[in-house]
Amino acid sequence: MKAHDGMYIDGAWRPAASGETIDVVNPVDEQVIDRVPAGTAADVDTAVRAARAALPGWAATPPAERAARLAALRDVLVTRKDEIAETVTAELGSPLAFSQAVHAGVPIAVAGSYAELAATHAFEEKVGNSTVYQEPIGVVGAITPWNYPLHQIVAKVAPALAAGCTVVLKPAEDTPLTAQLFAEAVDEAGIPAGVFNLVTGLGPIAGQALAEHPGVDLVSFTGSTAVGRRIGATAGAAVKKVALELGGKSANVILPSADLAKAVNVGVANVMSNSGQTCSAWTRMLVHRDQYDEAVELAATAAAKYGARIGPVVNAKQQARVRSYIEKGVAEGARLVAGGLESPSPQGYFISPTVFADVTPDMTIAQEEIFGPVLSILRYDDEDDAVRIANGTVYGLAGAVWAGEEAEAVAFARRLETGQVDINGGRFNPRAPFGGYKQSGVGRELGAHGLSEYLQTKSLQF
Ligand code: NAD
């Protein structure tokens, strides 16, 4: 487990200026497992000053050297993979095998991709009589959620460092131990003091202070639409760039020519994975009316197999929130075919894998992000109807389309107002741009598109 217990600022570990701490709770047994400093505006200010002071040196570091430090960071994450998985399991509650494969595995792949991109990206190009330079935007304020604790951090910090930016990170209060481990890895990788800084603390205190700090040039936020909207407004007033990864309510559209059983089973697994706490989860399954009853039966059977194996949701508040959505689904007339309010475990913040049938597009459970293991199955009449339903929410983060022929699925996917679509179960690609249409956000993460969020251009004319 991690050797340091504090905030990592300017290359050193320190307590919060206030001396206050926040409890970290294991959602499986509801026990306090650790405490971390509760940073305030004073700590944020110290961290931003450190990041500003480190900026000229890091921005001037040749991309090849920045790439070497990122490769070293990736290597440390590989060495500490088991510790990362155990830490995520302890504070998020996800099953260990999932933590190893996804919570540790994906950030390693993303860190590796930015080590390569930093080495190969053209930070300079000729356009006619001009030379265009891509320069770092400056100091980045990164605010991350708890659902994929390390991935959310690496998806912001790795491209920012590759670009030559310096960073102050405020991770989610539910999962700060993973962030402390990451800070240790940054230190071990030889990344200079001040280039990366960690301030743990509460969102409305430390997070807000970071979002509002005049020394921050770009705020990169992942989390709820409500907080994202405020951060966007603050950044807009300061004429500051902002990147927002917000909620989702993705559609999984099963066209009549698809392999129905495969599409339903993969669809259920997608929603239940990480206990439904995935912003891109396909929480609305759209099935043609002729195949509807069969799909509902398949989904109910598939969901019933998961039980408590999916792990709990992150905290008591989320558990209550997800339960209230289940109640609302029943009250609005949806038919519960799996799960429900009964918990699969007497202890911990568990929710039964839940499936609703006879869900109509206007119901709350078909419109709002639940962020728990709850699937809604909707009926469509024809392809135009399916497009209308799929596009009929304020969100547009991800989605899936299944069809007998890839070309048919692609043609349908092009009509969806969403940033990512998986075709016939296509695999997650850590280099493909990830981000939302509509209220799912502003900007893109991952790959070259994610790198460009942290760069600004300067053109010299000759
Ligand atoms: P949240 O938006 O409250 O928190 C996300 C991050 O923002 C955390 O680090 C938090 O401390 C910080 N924060 C909170 N208030 C802040 C403020 N006023 N100023 C600055 N920073 C602030 O989200 P949450 O409570 O973690 O989850 C609630 C909902 O957010 C979920 O149910 C889900 O709908 C959504 N969510 C989306 C994603 C995603 O990846 N798109 C991830 C997690 C949660």
Describe the structure.
The protein has 15 helices and 20 strands. It has 462 residues and is α/β, with parallel strands linked by helices. The strands form 5 sheets. The protein has a 7-stranded mixed β-sheet, sandwiched between helices. Strands 9-8-7-10-11-19 form a 6-stranded mixed β-sheet, sandwiched between helices. The site of nicotinamide-adenine-dinucleotide (NAD) has 25 residues, from helix 7 and helix 8.
Structure summary:
This protein has 15 helices and 20 strands.
Give descriptors for this structure:
Aldehyde Dehydrogenase, Chain A, domain 1, seven-stranded mixed beta sheet, six-stranded mixed beta sheet, 462 residues, 2 domains
What's the structural blueprint in terms of helices and strands?
Elements: E1 7-9, E2 12-14, E3 21-26, E4 31-37, H1 41-60, H2 63-79, H3 81-92, H4 96-120, E5 124-127, E6 130-136, E7 139-143, H5 149-163, E8 166-170, H6 176-188, E9 196-198, H7 203-212, E10 218-222, H8 225-237, E11 241-245, E12 251-254, H9 260-272, E13 284-288, H10 292-304, H11 316-331, E14 335-338, E15 354-359, H12 364-367, E16 374-380, H13 383-390, E17 399-402, H14 406-413, E18 422-423, E19 441-442, H15 447-452, E20 455-461
Parallel strand pairs: 7-8, 7-10, 8-9, 10-11, 12-13, 12-17, 13-16, 15-16, 17-18
Antiparallel strand pairs: 1-2, 3-4, 5-6, 6-20, 11-19, 14-15
Helix pairs in contact: 1-7, 2-4, 2-5, 2-6, 3-4, 3-6, 4-5, 9-10
The structure holds nicotinamide-adenine-dinucleotide (NAD).
